[in-house]
Every structure is written in C-alpha cells, then in structure tokens.
Amino acid sequence: MTDKSLQSNSGNLTLTKTISNDYSNGHHSKIEARISLPTPKNDPGATRFTVAQAIVKILENLQIREAFGVSGGAMATVWGALSDSPVIDVIHCRHEGGAAFAATEAYFASNRPIVIFTTAGPGITNALTGLLAARDEGAKVILLSACTSAPQRGRWAIQETSSNSIPQGGIFTPGVLFNYATVLESPKQLPQLAKKLALGLSHPGGYVAHISIPTAIQTTLVEESLPNLELTPIVPAPSPETIQQAIKLLTEGPFAIWLGFGARGAAAQILELAEKTGAAVMCSPRAKGIFPENHPQFVGVTGLGGHESVSQYMQEYPPLRTLVLGTRLGEPTSFWSDSIVPSRGFVHVDIDPSVPGVSYPYAETFPVVSDIAAFVSALLKNWPDNSHSKKEILFPNPEEGQIEPAQSDLVRPQVLMQAIQRIIVEGSDAVVLAESGNSFTWATHLLRFSQPLRYRVSTGVGSMGHNVTGVIGAAWGRQGKAVAIVGDGAMLMNSEVSTAVKYQIPAVWLVLNDGCYNMCRQGMSLLGLNGDANLPFTDFALMASAVGAKGIRIEKESDLEAALREAMAATSPVVVDIAIDRHCLAPSKGRNKGLIAQGIKSNPKKQDHQVSFPLV
C-alpha cells in the first residue's frame, strides 16, 4: 500500500491517493482520488493555476507516474508542466510512434495508466499506429496533444491542426481509436474532463483517451474548482445462475481450458481449477506463462508460432466443451480452424460482451460477461466435489524444437532460443518481448515460461517496431531488465536505443540479423511468388556504439553464451547483433494452412514446407 499527499505552499492544492500495488488479483486495487483545485474566485491571494498545470494535477491523481513523448513548440506549456511535476517522470523519446509503443508496454509492466504527449499536426499522426496498438492490446493510456488555437485555424499555421488539415472524426472524437476524445476549448471543461478520465480508467480492460489542448488555452488561468473523486475499479462479476449453468455445461463431459491475455490476472485461480478438474490447458501466444508451460496439463500454444501438440490433443482426447478465458479467438490465436472447435462448443468468458461467439459464429457458445478472476473464483467456490472421478491423463505436451544440422558458421535461430531460455528466461526475471515477424514465431514456439507477464507480443495489430521501442517502456515500468528479440528490419524501422542511453534504461536488444525481411522472403519463396525482401548489410553493434549504447557482435554460435551473459549483467542499454542463418525455416505450419484457407495460392511442389508470412 502506498499513501502520498502533496500540498501547495498556499494550501490550495490537496492531492491524496490510496492505491494497492498488489496486482495479483486482476486489477481489483482500490483507488481513491481526491482533487481540490485550484483557486476559489473569492480568494484573490490564492495560487493561480494554468490549464496545463491543472491537467497535470488531474493526471497525478489518476496515478499516472510516467509520460512518454516528443516535444514541440505548440505544446511547450504542457511539456513544461509535466516536467515540473514532482511525481511524473517525463521520458523524451525520438519518435512519437516509439513513445506510444513504449507507453503501452510501460502500462503492462506497471499496471498504471501512462501518458503520451505530442505536439500538433505530425506529432499526433506519428503516434496513431502506437495508439491503435494500445487500444487493441488493452492498455490504459492518455494522449495529450497540442492543436492550433481557434483564432489561427484556417490561416495556414505551422503544423496546423484543424479541420482544414487533419481528419477530425476518430482522432478528436471517440471511435475505433479512442474510447474518449475531446478538444479542450475552455477551462470550464476541466471538471467534466476529470470525471470522464477517472470513470474511464476505472472500467475493466483497456482505455485510450485523447485530450487535445489548443496552444493558447494551455496558459489560460483556471478559476473553477475541480470535483472531489472517490473511485473503486468496476469489476464485472457473474451471477449465481450464470455460474451454475457454466458448471452444468462443463461437468457434462471432459473440457479443456483455452487462455488468452485477458486471463493474466487470474493465474493462481486458473492453476487451481485445472488441477482440481484435470482439464487440459492451452493458450494464445500473448498468454504464454499464465499457466506454467512446464506443467503436465499444458498441451501447447495455439495459433501463430504454436504447437502441433494442441492438434494431437484435440484428436486423441477431444473435449466436449472448451472454457475460453480472456481471448477473442482471432486469427493469430486460432487461425479460425474448425479442428479446434469441440463438438459442443464453448463456454466463453470475457469482460467485453461483443467478444463471445464472434470468431466462431457457427459454434455453440455460452457467453459470460465477467472479470476472469471473479468468474474462476466463483467457479471454484461452487464446483462439485468430484475429485475422485478425475481422470489422470498423460496429455501431449509442446514438442521440443528440432535443430537442423548447421549449414554454415552462422547462428541457427533454434540454438539462439536455447541460449535465451537458459540464460534469460531461466537465469533472470527479465521480461522478454518478441517483435513481429520470424522473431515472434521462433520465440513463441521455442521459449517456455512458467510465470505470467514475462512474455509480451503484439498479435492483432502486429506492427513492426512495437517491441523494438516497447522494450524501453517495459524496462522503465518494471524498473528492471527487459529484453527484446527483434529482426533487423524492425530494428531499422523504429528504434529508441538513444532514448535508453539518455535515461540509462536497462534494455537489451537481441537482433536477428539475416539481411532481409525474412518472414516475407521465406513466405514468398515457399508460395512460389516473387518479391525482393533483402536489406543492405547493417552493423547494429556499431550503430549502438554510435548513440552511446554497448554493442556486441556475434558471428558464431560458440560466442552466444558469453555475449548474452555480458548483456544481462550490464546496467545500461545493450544491443546484441547476431548473424543469423536466414535459411532456417521458422515454425509456421499452422500459418501456412490459414493462408491457404483464405485463398493464398502456394506452389504445389512446396506445400509440404512451412510458410512464414505476415498477417493479411
């Protein structure tokens, strides 16, 4: 439990917070936020606050402790107010997209809402892909941007941000990108804005907001007091009738448990349920580690980079139903494969009522709208005592990766993953992030985690550059080591190594340097299609040194262990440039079948090979 109060010299500002930092219960922490700002109109001697300062005080009370962004003249006052905050750390990044990805991963590492700040015009548009990822991943982030003041709109202002120069719908209004968005045209909007943000952040799941502040408004003095707020996070729980119906369905025959990232706050309860019922457990790529991957009941990862053991389980021990917890069952998780649908369908639990039954609309589905921890806890409390009838089954477990004989002196990805497993996964508590592309499939397929929230990948948006930059947010948010497994193409696209150097963030980049966009190169070749995905040679160790980080170059497998240990021992940022054998095919058999099902034609002579290719 942390308690902190701040009081201004004049006594006009009181900030009180009470927040539990025990996140094991799935975001059930109580939050109390009391805001008393700023100056009563009848007290001319009291301290006056600008709009920018008032917004920062609101953010402080919403438990925001980090702001990632890029500065600019149009938002200088907001940037200054953030920098003056006694409790918010400002991390000045090199690109707004990198700042947004870093903020997303900082949220998952800290379980606190994060601010992103940008200037007007291109500052906003540069951040949009990262914000789209934040929305899709379920992060809680608030974008603070600048925009052109009303008297200057339509007069060709520098970086003009108005209906004359940038789309308004969906950027400055709620929609697909933002849960809440507004332009703050007057200080009188601040009380409503404070309540909107607080209520939005108290809801379960993600929340992405955008507050755009015209340059002239930022310095306007605030005369209205802000409301006092006392909030407890909203936790949707199932009704007793829902629990009884779920138990009835699940006890009619053998069932499996399919985990998604939304179940990350219920790891202990899920382990208890699995061991009590003897159910097999599988998970999506984002959910690796929620259920220990070394547990005998774990049958593997589904979807992209997943395991053949899941198919083997479904064939040898087909469940009557599957209990789906916190996953949308989208393409990266399921490939929409019919073979993974049980004969009687799903009991599908999610906090979002629009999720159950959508990916498999033809399958019988009993939908439950609930927090996963609340649901599983209620299930355990009411589960009948049938432990004596539980069958002990020797389930198939994830296959070990076969290492092909070396064809050159270059590093085979399978050998690299073995070293990462031994030195980083088992030898440290670092968070591991895998970038889109072959990095994703190699890491998802071969690494094994036994704790939740130690592995992060982006699936739905899957933007290149997400974890190349997200790694600094993960390291900052957890105040510890974070390691990104990335491709050379992603590393060239969007990097925040310089930011890590500035703040001495203990991030490590493991660059799979094979001189190409190898997922695309392998995929096009095996589909019998043409496309040049090659890249000029890049010395990433030299590039790291050029911006002040430590650079290590690995050209043979015998150097792997020493280099990884050196990188993990460092307290400052390290880039490990690894010469990878591009001819080792990434483990993407399931993706091949998914592409063919969507109409992608493959070369008949090569259908037996794996196809590694980006999402379409």
Automatic annotation (TrEMBL):
Q: Which species is listed as the source?
A: Gloeothece verrucosa (strain PCC 7822)
Query: Per UniProt, which keywords does this protein have?
Result: Thiamine pyrophosphate
Return one Gene Ontology term, BP aspect. Answer: isoleucine biosynthetic process
* InterPro entries on file: DHS-like_NAD/FAD-binding_dom, THDP-binding, Thiamin_PyroP_enz_cen_dom, Thiamin_PyroP_enz_TPP-bd_dom, TPP_enz, TPP_enzyme_TPP-bd
GO cellular component entries = acetolactate synthase complex
The entry sums up its family as follows:
Belongs to the TPP enzyme family.
What Pfam families does the record tag this protein with?
TPP_enzyme_C, TPP_enzyme_M, TPP_enzyme_N
Thiamine pyrophosphate enzyme N-terminal TPP-binding domain sequence ranges: 50-161
In this chain the Thiamine pyrophosphate enzyme central domain maps to: 256-379
Report domain Thiamine pyrophosphate enzyme TPP-binding positions. Answer: 436-578
- Can you say what this protein is called? Thiamine pyrophosphate protein domain protein TPP-binding protein
GO terms, molecular function = acetolactate synthase activity; flavin adenine dinucleotide binding; magnesium ion binding; thiamine pyrophosphate binding
